Amino acid sequence: MTPNAENDWFDDEFATFGDRLAGARDAAGLTQADLAKRIGVKEKTITAWENDVREPRANRLQMLAGILNVSMRWLLTGVGPGANDPSDLDTDDDLRAVLLDLRQVRSEYAEMGEKLGRLEKRLRGLVAGMETDQ
């Protein structure tokens, strides 16, 4: 990350996806291991994403945005609602824990919606196959 002289966090102009992901994770008070566990990947995957070696698939990107409370657009481009500087956070630990749990539930809800969509598509295919057999 390229430090910004004003806040010593990172410079939005030069930040990469990995920089924004690491910054948002820090702002949310999560370790790489915590984040990996929450979205169901290995810690080395988070490391690869933060080092810009690999990029998450769309479903994981959506989960990341939900858990970190940032927009997918911000994660990808730096434009839109993003993470606050970690030093700006004034919440106590209990409130932060509840917010993280809420983000996790929202992320799981989105993932379940995707699974429901895939199941519906499979079911429609099965029904269409049964109709052509008759």
Q: Your description of this structure?
A:
63% of the residues lie in helices and 0% in strands. It contains 6 helices and no strands. The protein is elongated, with a radius of gyration of 18 Å. The N and C termini lie far apart (62 Å). By secondary structure, the chain is mainly alpha-helical. Helix 2 packs across helix 3 and helix 4 packs antiparallel against helix 6.
Task: Tell me the distance between the termini.
Answer: 62 Å
Percent of residues in helices: 55-70%
- Show unreliable segments: 1-9, 85-89
What fraction strand? Answer: under 5%
Question: How many whole angstroms does the radius of gyration measure?
Answer: 18 Å
The total strand number stands at 0
Give keywords:
mainly alpha, 6 helices, 63% helix
Would you kindly provide a brief summary of this structure?
By secondary structure, this protein is mostly helical. The protein is built from 6 helices and no strands. Helix 2 packs across helix 3 and helix 4 runs antiparallel to helix 6.
